[in-house]
Amino acid sequence: YRSVCLAANRARCTVVSSDYCHAYMKCFLITITCEAVSDSAMVRIAMDNPKPNAPLIPSSSSSSSLSRKLPDFKQSVRLKYVKLGYHYLISHGMYLFLSPLLVLIASQLSTFSLEDIHIMWQHLQYNLISVIISSTLLVFLSTLYFVTRPRPVYLVNFSCYKPQESQKCTRPYFMEKSSLAGVFSKENLSFQRKILERSGLGESTYLPEALHNSPPTPSMLAARKEAEEVMYGAIDELLAKTKINPKDIGILIVNCSLFNPTPSLSAMIVNHYKLRGNIDSFNLGGMGCSAGIISIDLAKQLLQVHPNSYALVVSTENITLNWYLGNDRSMLVSNCLFRMGAAAILLSNRRSDRRRSKYQLVHSVRTHKGTDDKCFACVTQQEDSTGKVGVALSKELMAVAGDALKTNITTLGPLVLPMSEQLIFLATLIGKKVFKMKIKPYIPDFKLAFEHFCIHAGGRAVLDELEKNLQLSEWHMEPSRMTLCRFGNTSSSSLWYELAYSEAKGRVKKGDRVWQIAFGSGFKCNSAVWKALRTVNLGKVKNPWMDEIDQFPVSIPLVSPF
């Protein structure tokens, strides 16, 4: 900046008349540019001496070049504070409107004397019927409100399963086992390597025991063993945290998309923990990675009709019987991304549990695009040309996910966004639809509605698109990216590993709002909104991240060769 000033002084000394104006204008523009560019660019501009014979109105090429260097006023600090001021004004508009009214009422009441109050009381004594009717109406309306209002749903606690060290699967180890399987072509082994290099997965994900064998030995027995290991591991930790008796659980919901044995997974849990005989038990299958929020929504609805109840939700996916051993590339992607894991969540509608609960469920919004054939078929379990069963991912997946997200946030937005954002969105919509103005659709700032984002760690491409479309920062995306790196895609349970990451980092404070959003086959996009009831005490947090949280976040390059 100092160099630019010196250049300006030299220009004033060496040029005269109109040439002086030319040089001065160019120096002025250079000075403005320096305020908006980086330090390196600042140095480069300062080294360029202005030419005295430069024209006052630059050519089109130089003009476009200069405009590219001018500050981005939409991102300027001043405009940022204007927007924050507007948001504050609209959000607190009701208080600002009522304040003068309250002052007027207070000033009027201050003029009342004891004699005035005595006269009012005498009037009420002579209007006994009016008093009785008013009191009865007040009691009736109060009773109606307390009876019909929805019961609150509290998240008492949750736990995520951390597999054993012997089940770790580094990327080189994954490629070694894939090669030893003897079923993949050389080209498809190379394809899997490229997927892993760009996937965002790290070197500490987990695979079940049957897939560590060479060749893999998937079986019903091995699949049941994996299911028991992850489900019982998560539930045992949850029961230890909450210290509740398993027989107090009145609702059980288990979701696992691709493994649905008989007896069901929910029956396995009832048998293992000897839950009570009249428990409401549900087993959700085939609903993809968004089934975890579907389970939460189902539990919420059941808790509205079952007073003083606990609901246990278990979200998992089974890898053993769903490892694809063929050469269809659309089915090989899932091998590279999916890893083992599970989460157990305890919900309650008992008001006495509010004190010890972590979160309260505020909203749950479900979107189903199954009526559209393209959406319905973008994620499908099927046989390949050789009869091998796998999960095929369509090339239309990202477009379908974007459309489902748009529908979901259109429903969720009015429920969570501050009035300031809704007014801007409405004004933009009216301008575009009614007045046919050529303006871009306004994307609401969801960072004003939520402090934390738990986005399903389905893959790097999904996270990149959501970060871009929702205009989120690296800090907001950190839980999702680190979960994908550390544990891989654990399907419906990934949302809870992400929330556990935020807790382990000590980020969750009382009153914070958390947005969980997941995508699933069918095609579905589901959201859950939670409000933190207390600040997380790091001394009492126990989750899979705590032993290694100081090692995160880690840098994840776009391509990570190995």
What does this entry look like structurally?
- α9 (171-180) packs antiparallel against α10, α10 crosses α14 and α11 (220-242) crosses α12.
- The protein is built from 20 helices and 13 strands.
- The protein has helices at residues 2-14, 17-36, 39-47, 60-69, 77-91, 93-109, 114-125, 128-148, 171-180, 186-199, 220-242, 265-273, 291-305, 329-337, 373-376, 397-416, 419-433, 460-469, 474-487, 494-504; strands at residues 154-160, 168-169, 205-206, 249-255, 280-284, 310-316, 342-348, 359-368, 379-383, 389-393, 452-455, 513-520, 524-532.
- It is of the alpha+beta class.
- The strands form three sheets. A nine-stranded mixed beta sheet has the order 5-4-6-7-1-8-13-12-11, sandwiched between helices.
Q: SSE layout and pairings?
A:
Layout: H1 2-14, H2 17-36, H3 39-47, H4 60-69, H5 77-91, H6 93-109, H7 114-125, H8 128-148, E1 154-160, E2 168-169, H9 171-180, H10 186-199, E3 205-206, H11 220-242, E4 249-255, H12 265-273, E5 280-284, H13 291-305, E6 310-316, H14 329-337, E7 342-348, E8 359-368, H15 373-376, E9 379-383, E10 389-393, H16 397-416, H17 419-433, E11 452-455, H18 460-469, H19 474-487, H20 494-504, E12 513-520, E13 524-532
Parallel strand pairs: 4-5, 4-6, 11-12
Antiparallel strand pairs: 1-7, 1-8, 2-3, 6-7, 8-13, 9-10, 12-13
Helix pairs in contact: 1-2, 1-3, 2-3, 9-10, 10-14, 11-12, 19-20
